[in-house]
Structure formats: structure tokens, C-alpha cells
Records
---
Amino acid sequence: MTIATPSTPPEPAPSGLTLPALTERVEAVSALYARKFGIARDPDWFVLKLAEETGELTQAYLAASGRTRPRVASEGEVPDGGRAALAAEVADVLAHLLLLARSQGIDVERAVREKWFVWEGEVGGEVDVQAEVGRG
């Protein structure tokens, strides 16, 4: 089985969340979870948790792409080729990446602008996002 890649990007969800607002909501949930289960979120925890979730993302990707042994579906689980599990792990990795950045005082939007968007000028000006995404 191959992981499908859309030819056009999906429409953004109408959540209205900005990256900083998303980060703060993730932080609030993480803090509540840590209090409930007695987890000390020290500086090491943020990076170690991100590594753990990245491993789970890799496992979900391998399962969704048919490169691991089949697992037994849970009762009531709708077979979707592993897409729901993959999406859940992508969400976990993103959330824990935002938590790590926040814990280290990193402005993610600024870091992306300075690391990635400088290439727009190097490759000939503004990038047509729709055209580039469609090319893969």
C-alpha cells in the first residue's frame, strides 16, 4: 500500500487558530495532563517526548504503507489503512515540537521565516505555493 499524496493541498480547517494560539492551547493541555499524571516536564522531558512521538509516527507510517506486520484492529475500529493512526501521530509530533520550541523560547514563525523563506529570493522571487505544492 502506498501513502497517497494529494495533488492539491487540503483546505485549511476553519479553526481560526494562529500558530501562537495553537501553541498556547497545546501547552495548556500538556500542563493539565502532566498535573493529572504526575509528570515532571523538565527541559529533557520536552525533547525526549518529541523523540518518543517521532518513533510512534514512524511506526504509524510503516503500518499505513504496508511495511510492517499487520495489527489486529480494535473492536469498533473502522479500517482506514492506518490513516487515522498516522494523522494522530502527526498531531502528536507537531504538538510536542511546539512544546519543545516554547520551552526553549523559540519563535517558530520567525525561525521558519529565517531558515526556509530566505530561499524564496534565492530561487527567483516569490513562490507560487499552489503551483509548487502540486509539483510535489
---
Amino acid sequence: MKTKLYIFVLGFFMISSGLQAQLFNKIKGKIEDKAAEVVEEGLNAGKKNKNTKSRSGRIQLGEVMDFNPADSIIYATNFSRTKVGSMPQDWKTTGSGSVIPVSQIGGNWLKMSERTSYKLNKSLYYPEDFTVEFDLLVAADKVDDLSSLYFGFTKDNSLSRWISSNNIWYTELQYMNNNDVVVSSPSADIYQALNYDLETYANQVMHIAIEVHQDQVKIFLDGNKIADTKLFNREKAKHFFISSPLRQNHNSTTLISNFKISVYKDLLSKL
């Protein structure tokens, strides 16, 4: 009887030891897995914090509007004195044009005919330093209903063709491509193509500003500088022009207003 009891107790302890070993291994495995998870989370958190720090630490670039408008106006018009439906007397054209009111925006605007160039009737003397400013409006369902519009300077004040072959430099707004602009100077042998969002300018006013210091020209579209380079080549005679698009589909059109040419006060006595 004692022998059987001894065998039973011995077997019980052996079985108990085995169960304890299995339980210990399970607990040990869970602890190791949890430890691995904690380590992995720590590593991932480190990477996340590093990435966050990298994003938040990016250098912030400032924007500077360096257009310096001249302060003495030598010519200005908003077409308020022009009879509605008429072509302004101080402008000339290769085709036709008419002043119309634009009620949604206000004021009178010169509506430009398709494939037509415009210049001032009177030749102005431009000093070495001056500015030109005007507002441009595209009335259209979408801007790619139009082809390119041009503005710039020519060597003479004649108007014999749509785009003068005697131009000094010009800016081309390629509406048909929605976001392409070209600045070119045959005189200075410069051609610059860049991206600029034109698509948003359907039925919106774009303010155009040109600042000239001798041969150096800055061009701004709504305060954004698109050129700052030598576009003139020591030309003494220079004449502003603007040419409407060759194509203006679906009753789209282009208009200008608030045009002015100014010089700097300390140079006014030289005119």
C-alpha cells in the first residue's frame, strides 16, 4: 500500500513539474513578445518623431514684392471720358475696338477685337526709368477659348500688322495652354518660358506692371514677378503695344483699363 502511495505522489509531482514548466514557457513567451512590441513601438515612435521634426523644421521662404511704381504720371486713362461704343481717340489699332462698361467689375474698358494690335496715337518719350501699369480682363467661359495675348515694346509706332516684326520684346500669355507664359526679346536674344496659372483668370482682373531701369525690365502679373532681366538693348525709341488673341472662341474677348505710364519724380525735369 505504501509503495502504491509513493508511486502516486511521485507521479503527481512529475506531472505537476511538467505543467509548471509548460506554464512558465508560455508566460516567458508572452513576456518576450510584449517586450519586442514595446521595443518596436519605441523605434517607430522615434522614426515618427524624426519625420515630424523634419517636416516642421523645413525652412520657410519669404515673398517680397519689389515692384517700385514711379510717382509722376505722364499718361493715364480709364476710358471714363470716352463715349461708350467708340474707339478711344488717343489709341490706334490695326482693326477696331470699343469702350464698354463692365457692370460686375465697374468702370469702362476697351474691348479688343480678335487678332488686333493697339498702340497710343501719340509717341511718348520714355526716359531710362519708368513704369507701365494696366488691368487686363478675359471675359470667357474658360481661358483656353482664347489663343495667346501679347504685350511689350516695338522700335517704332507704326501699325501695319497684327504682331510687329519690329518688336524689341514681348510677353505672351498662352491662354490656350492654361498655364504657359513666354517672355522674349529678339533685340537682346532672350527667350524665357515659364509656368503661370492663367486658368483662374476667366472673368477675373489681372493687374500687369512693368518696371524699367535702362535695359533692365521687371514684369509682374498680379504682383508675381515673372521676369527681371535685360530685355532692351540700348534702344532710344520704344513704343508700347498690346495685341489681342488670334482666336477668341465662344464669344470670349479681352479688355484693358486703368492704363498709366509713370516716371520717377527726380527724372521728370529731364522730359
---
Amino acid sequence: MRKFWESLAFWRRWDDRERAVAVKIIGLLVAAIAVFVLIGTVSYLFHWKEDMSLLSDPAMMDAGVKAGNAAGKLGYSTGHLLVCRLFGLGSFALLVILAAVSARLIAGRWHYSLLKTTLVALFGAFVASVVLACIGGFAGAQNAFGGGLGGEFGAQIIAWSNNLFGVIVTPILAVILLLAYLFFTSRRFTDWVYNLGKAPKAEKKPKKQKKADKAADLKAEPEAVQEPEEEPAPMEEAAPADEAEASPSKPASPIKPDGGDGEASASGAPEKSASGDIDIEIVKDDTLEAEVKELKPIDNRMDPPEGLPWYKFPSIELLGEHAAGKREVSSIELTKNNNKIRQALQTYRIDVEDVKAIIGPTVTLYKVTPAPGVKISEIKKLQEDIALSLKARGVRVVTLADSVGIEVANEQQSIVPLRNLLNNDSFRNSKYELPVAIGYTITQEVKVFDLADAPHLLIAGATKQGKSVGLNVIVASLLYSKHPSELKFVFIDPKMVEFSAYNGLLHHYLAVLPTAGDEKEEKAKAIVKTPADADKALASLCIEMDERYKLLSEAGVNKLTLYNEKFKARKLNPEKGHRYLPYLVTVVDEYADLTMTIGGSPEARKCAKNITNSIIRLAQKGRAAGIHVILATQRPSVDVISGIIKSNFPMRIAFRVASRVDSMTILDAPGAEKLIGKGDMLWSAGIDTERIQCGYVSGEEIDSITEFIEDQQGYKKSYNTPYYLP
């Protein structure tokens, strides 16, 4: 529908205000037509016999004979066409199309496609016509309204079916056609059929009763989790007798979610282990099960300058819940791992006072409090032995503030949907300039960071470990939080397929080099795909950065936010070259492929050197100018990620890598080689590393987001970076 409007010459000449007024006027006209057709069609049902002579005798149509139809002779003709000649009573489904068109135009949503609504209404009119014609045949109402209940169209279909299949099979086919239509267009009908014949669902228990039942189940399980050869006493028997008498109703290991800040907390008495010396406090959070809230744009949004005032942010309903990816960690698994950790430490005569388990989506953190006199280094040396004893992947030993943490991968890994991350208050209420919700921490907190404060991000990981999904999560977070006037992307994709979904955002979110070609050529080059084009794009960004620094200097400010505030306050004169400056986020995938020079020509080596130099320049000076770089590679070797690049990328993300050397290269610390993949990652902001389960967004969800944005009116011209001549 948008392409139809933009194909009109006068439409392209109008500004946004003139377009909005014109669209509303057209919407009111369509609504008036819809009301007229409705009145004429309904009135036809009551006056069709007395008005039939108007069509049978043209002279009466031209004469001054008054029609009985409330909409006059034209209304009668319209009703006769729809009800008698076409679909009978099913013609009322066609009015849905006019109603949908008028509603969209009046609401200013002219750019949305009506194809689905039109097809559903047309097919509905067809199905209703056939079914009503079949019913009319059995009821003897073949001549009702002049053409039968289903109109002449439905009567012809039924006559053809009777001749081909017989009068017995035809009604069956009509019922099948009706059921198929309801199945494909009505979710409620599908659910009703699915639940047909099933026993009614039991009443839901109150939340407190659920927790009590769960706690009771956990209390009864520990007897079954002990290993047969050890034959330890049940956990309840390990507690002192006076303690058991004092609190007989306490659950063994209750799991109580905290009230919304995402931090896990324990309730009830700690659970005693089989040895009688270690307390296990099971800590868990249920933020993954939180109710979905309506996602709203972040509060720090400004009024978009000059254009797109009716832009609508993508709905959170475009993102899936991925409920099938949620996994629970049983108390059996927790107690078994606790016993094995305890046994491994006791083998080396290391005593511990307490063990607490914090359950995350991917790994469980066992916080081990060593006995007085035990050195932390002694436990860290046993990392491989503990991993061997647990027979688990992803085992890491980390130093915590008050204990030693042993991270153990869960038997079943949970998916963290992007929908849950964006629906969390820590993202919704964020005051960051460029907020990114990257995933869940071990304590089930949503990890949100500010890319503007980063100021650049280095990402590394082996193939199929979650790097591409992580990039999409970052981009989607920004699309859900920033207006097109505030943010532009430059995508560099040597693999040519990773960022193709964002090609349609050319007139909304993309920054491209100016081209002398038409819009089709410009769209084809919107995503940079070759090293030569990457060299030009990055060099153009360097020129843009230098120009922005000149503007900042003239404005007497030292960062982008202060400059834009002055511009919005009309303290900077556009006639002197001042303009609103959006953030520029450059996303570079497979950086190693861009700089590969082995066996290349002198031109290729020069191009690779230019790319590296441009990346370094942008990393060194881009922050104040609002230019930020996200650099990703699956080969984090020292010849790709040099020291000067690392020094300008303090924020880093490491997915699973092949070796300890690669982990040291990307993080300056080991551990990334111990990750289990599928989005399991280490995040570092220059001090400590933090283990996070990266969010998940599918390719279909990204397509839905980009299509939603693309269907809206964009800027007439794309955002161009300065022209670059090598």
C-alpha cells in the first residue's frame, strides 16, 4: 500500500502534514462509501421484491419512480449486485475490506498492507456463499433475495458440485470447506477443536499452595538421590534432633523467587547434606515466567526532528516466547552435584563450611565457603579434578567476594528469549543512551549495558557458538529503543548473508555512501559486502568523524549529547552547517576475513591495511562524535586482534573458543574455552569477567521486526556519509 501512495507524483511533493490530512480525508470518504453500501445492502433484504421492477424495466429506472430501498435506486442496484448476483448474505464479508481500509486511513496507518485482511474477507464471502447456497437448497429458499441465500454465485457452485459429486457428498464438502476456513483464520476455533473431548482443566491452586506442594516434593526427594554405594543417611536425619523438633514443618529446600529485581534469594531453613557438615541453600529466580508487559519506548527519547513523527516502534508481540526452551533444574541434580563437589574436595583434605546453589539458565553456581585456613588457590587448582568428578561440561572455578564459585553446566540448557529481556524493567526503565539487553546472568538478572559508554565492543567466538545471534540481539535491542532520527547503522558483512535482513531499513536506520545510481542500486549496496566497499565505508566514517569534531568544536561542547541538546534548543544555526547528529553504530562481522592478506594482491594488502587503520581511528576518537564500533570475529588470533585494537575495545564478549590461547587473546584471561556453547558467553568491561547466557532471537523474528519497520513511511532520502575518493 505504501508503494501505491509513493507512486503518485503529487504525493511525493507533499510534506508529512499535508499527507496526513489528505489520508484522513480519503479515509472519511471510504467510510462514507462503506456506510452507504451497508445501508443499501441491508435495505435490499427487505425491499428487493418491490424494487425488482426497477431493474426489469429500464424505463422505470429512468423515470421518477421512488425506490423502496433506503439508499435509493443506486443503493438497490448495489444490493442487487452483491446479494443476488454475487455472494448472497456472504457479501457482508466484503464490507470488512472497506471498513479496514477506512480505519487504517483515518488512523494514519496507510502504509500497512491490507493483503491479509482482503484475502480473509474474500475467501470468507466465498465460503459463506457456498454454505448458504447449500442450506438454501435443502430449505427450499433457492429464490430468496432473488438469487438464493448464497446468491447466484453460490448457487452455480452448488449446482456444479451436485452434478459432479452428487447431492449427498456436496453438503459434506461444504462443511469441510467451512471447517477449513475456520481452522486457518480462527485461533479460538482451533483451540476448541484441540480441547474437544478432553477432561476439563483442574482448578489452579493458589500460588502459596503451589510453593508448599513443591517444597514438600523437594523434601521427599533427597532419599532417592544418594548414590547406592555410599548409602548415606537421609538429609532430614542428618539434622540434630532438637532442631528437627523445633521446626518440623520447614521444607527441605524451598525455592522462593525474589520480588522482581531479578536477584535470587532463599527462604526457609538450609538443607543439610548427607555428610552433616554442609548446608545447601538452593537459590532460584523465576523471571523467565514473569507476565509479559506492553513494551514502551525508553523514556529518554527526544522529539524526532523533521520527519517520521508517526513512526511506531516494533511491538513486543513480534518476538516469540520460546516456552519450549525453558528447563528446570531438579533437586536431584543439585544434591548429586553437591555430593560430588564435596567428595572431590575431601579427597584433597579441603574442608568446607557451606555450599549454596544459585541456579542460572545455563549453569548453576555452587558457592563454596572454605573452612578457616584453607587457601583459595588450593581449590582453584582442582578445577580439572572437579570437572572429572562431576562428569559435566563448562566447569569453571572463580573467585567471589566471600567464597569460591564452582560453575557447573545444567543437564538441560534453557533458552533466554529476547522478548523476556526487552520486557524486563531494567531495560524498559533504562536511562542509557544506547541500551543493549544482552542476556541473563547466573543470578537471573537481565544484563543491560550502554553501548555509548562502552564505547566499542569486541566479540569473538568459534563457529555456531552464538556470535551471530548475539549480534542480532544487540541490533534488535537498539531498534526497540531508539527512533530512526537518533540512530543509524553501518553493516559490514563479508559473508553476505548475516545482515541481509536489515537491507529493508535503508530509509529508516541505515547510513550509506552516496551513490549516483537509482534507489534499487542504493539498496543493493546498503549492506557492505566486499573488502573494497568496506574500505570506502570506513574511510567515509572517518571523514564524518572529523566533520563532527569540527561541529563540536564550533559549538563549544565535547560530546554528542551536549551538541544535540544545543541544537534542539535552537542555539546552533543550521545555515552555518549545524545539524542534528544521530548515533552511528558500525557493525563489522568476520573482521578476520576483511583483513586477510595471505596470497593476496598488493591492492588487497593495501585494502586490508586501510581497513585496520580506519577501525583504529574510529575506536580511538569515535566516542565523542557518537560513532561506535562493534567488531566480531571467529578467529581471535593475535595477528587479527592486535594490541592496539584491544586497548581501544575495553568491553569484550567471548563465546566458546577453541583454545585457552584464544581466550587469553580476547579476554586477557582463560575460561572461554570452558564454555558449553549455544549462547554461553563471558562478558568483560575491563575488570572482571561475568558469565552470561546470551538472549535468543530467531531469523523469523528479525524478519518480522524489519518488515514492520519497512512497511512504515521512511525518510525520502537515506542518510549519507561523506563521499570518499581513494
---
Amino acid sequence: MPSLAPAPLAITLFLPDLEDRPDRRSTVDLAHGLLRAGVAVDVVVPMGGGPLRAALNPAVGQIDLAKRHAATSALALARVIAERQPSLLALPRDVSWVGRLALWLGRSDARLVVLEGDAETDFAAIRAAAPRWG
């Protein structure tokens, strides 16, 4: 018999890389904040390497698309979205078009949030856009 309890809120964060830059570090901090709030979080990147990979909490899902660039990741991201079915996709402004295309290709009704590079501001934006919280 299926559970009557609602599934936890799931959020996918897409980053073009895991280089140690202020906006990327902010997104890692955001992932940890979401995790502390009880949200299931996946961090998706085209190529999995980078200095910030070690900074991610092991409880955060880490998905490597095996693509060289964010620009070539839309179809692979669409597959991840179709499989994981997040409620929300959050990503930096410079790759927001990749997210829009991935949501369209994956025929997903997940909401899209463009990250500003500040963990507190981005957390508030995600909380406001989330279909349900808690």
C-alpha cells in the first residue's frame, strides 16, 4: 500500500561547474541550508570535478552529467529532471536558458528559480516559489 505521507520537497540546483567562485560557493551554502530545512537537494553539474565538490555534504545528491559545457547539458539535465521529478529547478542567470530548455524537453511542471548569488536571498526566493514548504 502506498504511503499517504507527502513526499518531501525536492529541489535540483544546476551549476555550470564547481569552481571555487563566490556565486558557486553561495549555491553550495544554499544546498546545505535547504538540506537543514528538510528539503531533498540534488546538485547537478556538466562535469563533476572542481574544488567545491569536497565541500558538498554527502547527503546532497551529486549528479555529474558527463558533458563538457553547460551549453550542451540541456538534454541530459532534462533526463535527470524527468527521473528525479523535482518541484523546483534553481540555477544561475547565465545558464537559465539551459534550465528553461531542459524543463521544456522533459515536459516538467517544475518551477524555475534564477539564483542571484546570495544564499539568503536565493533561499527566500526558493521558499517563495516552492509549491509547498515543510
